[in-house]
Amino acid sequence: QDPHAKKDEL
Amino acid sequence: MNLFRLVADLMHLVSIFILLLKMQKTRSVAGRCSRISFKTQALYATVFLTRYTDLFANFQSLYNTTMKVFFIASSLYIVFLMKFKFKATNDPRLDTFKAQYVVGGAAALALIVNYAFTVQEVLWTFSIYLEAVAILPQLFMLTKTGEAEVITTHYLFALGTYRGLYLVNWIYRYWTEYYVDWIVWIAGAVQTGLYCDFFYIYFTKVLKGAKFELP
After folding, report:
1. pLDDT tens column, B119-140
2. Is residue B173 within 8 angstroms of chain A, CB to CB?
3. How far apart are CA B202 and CA B156, in angstroms?
């Protein structure tokens, strides 16, 4: 799974 | 999104507006040192440019995208103002923190400790580590001059509050959605820790109307 896909914080 | 994170992001916005306001004010007293570290501002621009490489690929929400665009644009604008427009008011003799060491350190650590060894992920990790220490040139400058203008202390207070509220947000997210992000947590804790001394003086002196002076 791409660890970047779920990053939602600024 | 929770209230802690929303207020944190808004405090981050406030800090940028305070800085822009201060720079407008500085223009009217050209020649006087602005006491804003160019190195810190350049580091923040680097942080945003390396963190938001997913700007077009990873859409979270309109809020998320708008904020990303604003942080990139405003940080570049501030660097531009300091480098070209208000160059005369910027005194490099006070801005002597060795920024290349923290950039190198953050880059080396990002290559070793990351979630995935891809270009985007290493750049993102680098931005997290770099943000944790990006305020150091500014704090170093403050220590060197031993005093700060009130507006500069408000800027630092807004930035410190933004970081502090992110800590609360992570605790809240851990309990409500089992959100875990060790890299961000540890870097964030270090970053917030850097503000402790500043907060102490801000609360004991600036809020009581006294000048920000180091003992």
Report:
1. 999 999 999 999 999 999 999 9
2. no
3. 9
